[in-house]
Structure prediction request, 252 residues.
Amino acid sequence: MDSNRRHLIAGISLAGAGILLNACRANQSRSGGATNEENKAEGPAPGEATSVEVTAAEDLMREHGILRRALLVYQESVARLRQDAASVPPDALEKAANLFRVFGEDYHEKKLEETFIFPTVKKAPGSAAGYIDVLLGQHTRGREITDYVLSITKAERIASNSVEPLARALESLVRMYEHHAAIEDTVIFPAWKSAIGQAELDELGEKFEAIEHEQFGDDGYEVALKRMEEIENSLGLSNLEMFTAPPPPPSK
Ligand SMILES: [Fe+2]
Ligand SMILES: [Fe+2]
Prediction:
């Protein structure tokens, strides 16, 4: 690790960011640590095509992709918790909640949306401005739920009287955040792009990249992606094919 990067990581207030990076490096260094996807083909792992330029809006949307994958882990965990709570390792959920906290809440929400996107959209003409207060309220509620998930999952096992409350909290977070991110992708980010114009959009694309480097070092998105894959692997959720829907019943 170069000294500049070490300095930046040391400056991050949440220990989770360091955990995020260190766990990924450990994963990368293990010969058996490759994901299913990486085993399938030679060449760059998913998300490693860093030389391709990413626009500011695309950056925000691919961050949603990481957060949606954390939500899928939550959603799968809800079903397992209700079926057999012992089959859900608390540390896998804790890692997912830590990723959501560091990458989603502290970086994507606070450093980007609440600092740059929401204030601009709130002042812009059009109906998108009407969503901002609700979206901010949902950020706050999400953080409360993440605090709760982290408090429950720090134990070696999930207490039996916490299983259903935890399942409900995760379920409600998934429902809220899926709607939240969908509105941001389809209404808020397009409204923001129209409000600022291309020149400022390009400028902010570079600024977002600088903020990402400041928060995480050189490769925040790639590190978060690898971390997410590691969590999915640990829960047996890394094979996309297992989610292919069964055929529908024959039509009459
Ligand atoms: Fe948001
Ligand atoms: Fe967002």
